[in-house]
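<backbone_tokenisation>
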Amino acid sequence: MKQSQIFWGVLFVSLGIMILLFQIFDFSLPFSNIIGYFWPLAIILIGAGFLIKSNFVKLLFSGFAGLGIGIVLFGIFSGIMNFDFRFLKYKNTKSSSGTLNSSFHSSPVDSSVKSVKLHFSGGAGSYRVYGITDNLYLLKSDGSSRTFEVESKNIDGTVNLDISMQEFNFDSGEGELSGAVSLGLQQNIPFDLNFELGASKGEIDLKGFLISKLNLEAGASSIKIFLPNPSEKDVPVSITSGAGKITVYIPENSGAKIETDVNLSSTNFDDFTSANGILANKGYINSQESYKIMFEGGVSNFTVKTYKPE
């Protein structure tokens, strides 16, 4: 058997098994931080396989290399592992006229603000979105590696708030993928939310918010989203993910219907049934306030659950 057959065979088999376990059992790898730090060993094994003359050792190294690359790909796709990519840097080369801040930025609440349209653009990392009452927004990030540009314009009471990552060094100084970002948003003002994230993990907790729309585009991610009580009929929620696991929580007794374009993705919509071409829960038809949730993805796991509002 050839080296290439061993390598690709082990890679695809191991990657497939890990993705399947992840989607069914929420599987995670033990010693993920250690694996994330020593992942270059897989590359070394590939090179060593070309240099060693013994056919048995070549095949052995190819198998271990395939397994290592499979673990690395699974970690990136699922967003559950931290990789040391200290030799890489991200920098947005677009010209900016806004304010760059590496670790902290906030804005007080203006009484003239009636609604906010937020566009948040970030790269790989860990994210947390939560509610606040003292400011319009509160952005905190790991100041050692990440800078953001914040632009805000108030047009007739509607604030266009654009927060975009400008520079990201993968070296956190601790041998792990840095990228911890927390974003607090004012709960008492209606928000139109648009998030663009890379390979990421985190939680978007919107309980108690007023939202008119939510759009999330994510790469290989593991993200939980808690939606508030809907404020009107068919509040649009759009979720797009390349690979990973997205779980959406809606309040009990809130109406919702689901549309999907998921290709090879798996879904878990236990409380939803199909009737007259509509996939909806029990409260949707007679509800005056509800969600219209759209899922799009390649190889992902999409789940909708309920929670009890406080």
Remarks:
- The CA atoms of residues 43 and 65 lie 7 Å apart.
